Structure formats: C-alpha cells, structure tokens
TrEMBL record:
Pfam families: Met_asp_mut_E. Coiled coil: none annotated. This is Methylaspartate mutase. It comes from the Bacteria. Keywords: Cobalamin, Cobalt, Isomerase. Gene3D superfamilies: Methylmalonyl-CoA mutase. Residues 382-402, 441-464 are annotated as: Disordered. It comes from Kitasatospora saccharophila.
Length: 464
C-alpha cells in the first residue's frame, strides 16, 4: 500500500525546501528575458522508462520545463485499468499513470530533473490526479472546466467539470497562502481544428476569471498556432490586454503558444519548417512559453530523440541573431483590434451574469458560447470556421455567438463572399482543404495521410 498522501502543508513545505524553481518562476524569468521557455510533451507508462525519458530530454533538448503527459485511463479516472496495464504491459499506456504509480514515485521524477514539471492530461474531473501532482512537487497543472471537457468528453455535464476544476483552483488558492504559487495552464487549443482566436481566448478568459476568483495566482493562457503570422502574433499579444481588462490585479498571466496542433506535414523537412515557424511566432508574440512539436507529429507519439530535436530546433528561433525578424505591425494591430472586440462580444454577456458557472452552462446550451467540432452534447458546435485566402482563421458562420454585425460582416468579407455561397459538399471539401492547409502548402498529397481530425469525425480526441 502506498503511504497516505501528505497534507497540503507538508506538500507546500516539500516544494519550498526542494530548492527547485517553480513553473511560475521559470515563466516570469522567460517573459523578462524575451525568449519563450521551451517545453515538450512526454509520457510513457513505466516508471523507470519515464525517468529515463525525462533524463534524456533534459540532457539532449535542454527544456525549461518538462511534462508528465498522463495516460487515457487516468484521465478518465479508470485507475484500475491503469493498474492492470502496469501489471501486464506498461507499453500499452499512452502516458504516465501518476495516480497509480503514486506520489512517492512522482517525487522521484521531480527530484531527478532540475526543471519544474507540469501535468498535461485532458480530465474533466482531475481531483485525484491534482492531489497526487501536488504531493509529487509538480508546480504546473494544465486544463480547465470547459477546455478539458468539451473537446474530450461526449457527455460530461459542464456543471460537473466546472465544479471539479473549481476545487482544484481553490486548492491552488490555499497553496498560494502556504507560499507556493501553482501555475494553472488553460487549454485554449480546444479541439485543435481551425479554432478562431476569439473562441480560444473567450474560453480562456472565462476559465481564468473563475480560477482567479477561486484564488489562483498564476495563469498561463495557451493559444494554438493557427498558421497566419499576424493573426497568431495578435492573439498572443492580446492575452496581457485581456488579463488587464478582466482579471483582478495580483494574478500573473502568461501567454503560451502551442506549436501547430492540426494536421502536420509528413515529410521531416516540412515538419521542421513548420516547427521553426511556430517558434518564431511565439517569439514575435511575446509568449512566455512554447509547447513544442516534433518531426514525427504526423505519425503519433514521438520518440525521445525526435522530441529532443524538436526542442533544439525551437531554441534556434530564440537566437539573438534573429532580432532582424519582424512582423507587419499594422496588420497585427488590425487583427488585434478585432480579436479583442470579438472576444469582448462573446464573454461580456456571460461575465455580467450573477453566477459565472451557471451562466457558462446556459450559454453553451444556447450556443451563445460555442466551440467548433466539439464531441460534446453540451456544446452546439454550430460555429463553422474557414481559412481566408491569406490563411487566417475566420468565422464562415458564427452560429449563435453574439457577434456584432460589424464583426460578422468583416469575417464574411475577408472570406470573400456571403456565408451561403459554400454549403453541403463544397463546404465540406473546403473545410477539408483548410484542415490540410500545411500538408497542401508543402505539396504533400492528402491521400494516404494519417486520418487527422476531420469534420466527419468531430469526436476525435485532441491530445493535451
Ligand atoms: N508523449 C509525447 N507526446 C504526446 N502527445 C500525446 N501523448 C504524448 C505522450 N505520451 C502529443 C501528440 C501530439 C500532441 C497533441 O500531444 O504527439 O503532438
């Protein structure tokens, strides 16, 4: 039997005396330096294998933070299935089952590497996982009551996931009072399929407001690279402005870029060009952190060598020699103005309600909040995104989102015509092309491509 989980006071004392920097400290330092902190995803089932993976990544890739990516059984609280897999064949797990291994092994991993650890998972109810993470000395925890429910689960009521995550956030508040600031990273990537920036940011604003009210003191707002430089830089630079507008003072907020989360080119060179482009985007957008990808992305979970290569490639974009790389500031300014405006139009009616959590539930049920291609019964998924001719992600249809007429018309104009000029089969084909944007840009044939997320299979689970 594993020893009883330490109390919060004991865990806080362990973290403080470990002498390791917390994730919040690493992020603050990165923001000041102007060079995004780098972090890979990584997780395997076996404990010894996980330890070896972390050591290899630290040695070969020099990340600023490391990850424990958690397996699917644990994400869904199927702890017995995780245990069975560990007993029979740990290689069948798609991540590290931290709850099953227990907090003492968690501490072993934490003490093995110099950099702080983050948990990335995808759980609508992460309470046991969070408790084990804190006891392990992990100082960053990804997810949120909206962003770890709607993209992943078919039928978990939003009220349930919001309540579970509120407990996590309240515990972060208690930890802050004990002197340990946990970083809470929100999953703005959502379904990872053509997510309009204002939807990603609106969901993050709502989760951040709830987290701050519960006592969270450090929030990382992650945003998925869409692939249009001015739009992505504008979205990243909007994050501190949204924080100033909607969050109380005293909450640290960091912008985080997820390197492209959609269908990746298969060719190694093409994949590496996209990775480098993502890393430059993070730098130009002033991100505190970049979550990296690898040249094996099109084929599944990367091995350690590819993962380390992805880190090294991303770090090249941080070189002081690249100070000459700039972005069209006028285009960024224009995008940013509209991103802020659309985000305000989406979040402000919800924020003005007396109770945030019930307002979120009602708004998703009515489609006034929405995310594209959601698997969940608790979101309508009536929003239809498209890429415009320059590659930026726009609203082909905003569904029932309360966008102003000016915002809706601008989206329509940039897409080049009235919303109903593409429908049925031609809309489906156009969406397919938008989703395959990067492989097509590089001249790769979509035939035979591994099945990426497609509008025909909206339930496909994005990995966190
Ligand atoms: N280790 C490394 N990367 C992982 N991903 C999912 N699970 C793991 C894991 N255990 C990555 C996928 C994809 C992203 C969404 O998450 O490879 O790049």
């Amino acid at each position: 039997m594993a020893a009883a989980t330490p109390t919060l006071e004991e865990s806080a004392a362990y973290i403080t005396r470990s002498g390791k920097p917390t994730a919040a400290e690493v992020l603050a330092r990165a923001r000041t330096s102007g060079r995004p902190a780098l972090q890979p995803r990584c997780g395997v089932g076996g404990h010894r294998e996980m330890a070896a993976l972390l050591l290899e990544l630290e040695r070969e890739g020099a990340p600023d933070l490391l990850t424990l990516t958690i397996d699917s059984h644990t994400r869904l609280r199927r702890f017995e299935s995780a245990e069975r897999a560990l007993r029979t064949d740990h290689r069948t797990l798609n991540g590290y089952p931290l709850v099953t291994h227990g907090w003492q092994r968690g501490r072993e991993l934490n003490e093995l590497v110099a950099v702080p650890l983050e948990i990335r998972h995808g759980s609508p109810d992460p309470r046991e996982l969070f408790a084990t993470a804190v006891a392990s000395g992990v100082t960053s925890f990804e997810g949120g009551g909206i962003s770890y429910n709607l993209p992943y689960s078919k039928d978990v009521p939003l009220a349930d996931s919001l309540a579970a995550w509120a407990e996590v956030d309240r515990t972060c508040g208690e930890l802050a009072r004990l002197g340990v600031v946990m970083d809470r990273e929100l999953f703005g990537t959502l379904t990872a399929v053509l997510v309009p920036p204002s939807i990603s940011l609106a969901v993050s604003v709502l989760e951040a407001v709830a987290a701050a009210a519960a006592g969270v003191r450090c929030v990382s707002v992650s945003y998925p690279q869409g692939g249009h430089l001015a739009q992505d830089v504008a979205a990243l630079r909007s994050i501190p402005l949204l924080a100033a507008r909607y969050l109380p003072p005293g909450v640290e907020v960091h912008a985080v870029l997820h390197e492209f989360m959609g269908v990746f080119p298969r060719d190694r060179g093409h994949a590496e060009e996209l990775i480098f482009y993502g890393a430059l985007t993070a730098r130009l957008g002033g991100a505190s952190k970049l979550i990296t990808k690898t040249y094996q992305e099109a084929f599944g979970i990367p091995d350690a060598a590819a993962n380390a290569a992805g880190l090294r490639l991303a770090s090249v974009a941080g070189s002081p020699l690249l100070d000459f790389v700039t972005v069209d500031e006028a285009a960024v300014g224009e995008e940013q103005e509209w991103i802020l405006r659309e985000t305000a139009e989406i979040v402000e009616p919800v924020l003005s309600a007396p109770r945030l959590d019930s307002a979120v539930v009602t708004a998703f049920a009515a489609g006034r909040l929405d995310i594209p291609f959601s698997a969940s019964r608790h979101a309508r998924s009536e929003v239809i995104p498209r890429r415009d001719p320059s590659g930026a992600v726009r609203y082909h249809s905003p569904g029932r989102l309360p966008l102003s007429r000016a915002s809706a018309e601008r989206n329509r104009r940039l897409l080049g015509g009235p919303a109903d000029d593409a429908s049925g089969a031609s809309l489906f084909a156009a969406l397919r092309r938008d989703i395959d944007h990067f492989p097509l840009l590089f001249g790769e044939t979509p035939e035979g491509a591994p099945a990426g997320p497609s509008p025909a299979t909206p339930g496909k689970e994005p990995a966190p």
